[in-house]
Amino acid sequence: MKYYHIPVLLNEVLGYLLCGPKKIFIDCTMGEGGHAFEILKKSGQTGVLIGIDRDKDSIEIARKRLKDCKGKAIFVHDSFQHIKKIISTFNIKKVDGILFDLGISSRQIDVPERGFSFRYDGPLDMRMNREQELTASTLIHTLPLKELAGILKKYGEERWSLRIAKKIVQTREKKRIETTKELAEIVRSAVPRSFKPQSIHPATRTFQALRIMVNEELDVLEVALRDAVELLKIKGRICVISFHSLEDRIAKQIFNSYKKGCICPPKIPQCICGKKQIVEVLTRRPVVPGREEVENNPRARSAKLRVAERIA
How far, in Å, CA of 73 to CA of 85, rounded? Predict the structure, then answer.
């Protein structure tokens, strides 16, 4: 079987997670199991990895990929927002390491019927979990103008959000918008020609915004990262690989919030807030792929890795 997923920043992740025997890890976004395979390989026969993914297809591919691993792999079809509930079902209280490899997989992008990319003509779907009802098509055909523009601005950081939203609304009043390429052309026509970016397609940010909204990616991420920190053993580590600024900002802010200790005013002689430092941030700046990795895997070029270690 051909595996699409080339694990990004693999050596860095394995190094920071301190992979080894008798350890328990959680891969919150297992995908096709690229990182999971190598983590278990480093963990030997006594290692345990819980792999979580919302995409059933990815779970089945990972199951085949990891079938010969000597360690124990547990596969869970769910959202990582339920991480606490998930590990409690296996009678596990604390773990040694947790990985979040955010965004969508290469396979999801390259399957037209998933509707994640305008490179192929497919339905406006964008669901990571195909069992949920909400799709991108639902959003673009039902959201009021201002709400649609707000989503494109907030989740896509789109400068021309209002113009694009107006064009979508004008089009849907005449006919139904059926495919990814049709939507991409609508967005292209809404962006002024003199302001079209040279490096990316004008519809890139719109597609990102719709995908994030369909899957509630940012809201889910914030909850899961906080829960993940609580589930770490002392000296346990959490790695977050993000692919756009909104995800990276959330990881940075949450790590920093757990890094802060006492927040009492300096004039108070004794701490009354009771706040203690929970983690040490190990990456003052995010780790990014080197030139060789980007050449071998161009989709790694925007990846950023942040790591924190629980100390209390």
Answer: 18
CATH number 3.40.50.150 given to 10-101+217-310: yes
Whole-model pTM? Answer: 0.91
Q: What are the beta bridge partners of residue 99? A: 27, 239
Q: What is the mean pLDDT of each run of 10 residues along the chain (312 residues)?
A: 75 96 96 94 93 95 90 94 96 97 87 93 95 97 98 96 98 97 97 78 95 95 97 98 96 95 76 84 97 93 97 96
Let me know if domain 114-215 sits in CATH 2.60.40.1120: no
User: What is the 3-state secondary structure of the chain?
Assistant: CCCCCCCCCHHHHHHHHCCCCCCEEEECCCCCCHHHHHHHHHHHHHCEEEEEECCHHHHHHHHHHCCCCCCEEEEEECCHHHHHHHHHCCCCCCEEEEEEECCCCHHHHHCHHHCCCCCCCCECCCCCCCCCCCCHHHHHHHCCHHHHHHHHHHHHCCCCHHHHHHHHHHHHHHCCCCEHHHHHHHHHHHCCHHHCCCCCCCCHHHHHHHHHHHHCHHHHHHHHHHHHHHHEEEEEEEEEEECCHHHHHHHHHHHHHHHCCCCCCCCCCCCCCCCCCCEEECCCCCECCCHHHHHHCHHHCCCEEEEEEECC
Q: Domain coordinates of the chain in residue numbers? A: 10-101+217-310, 114-215
Give the separation between CA 138 and CA 9, rounded to whole angstroms: 35
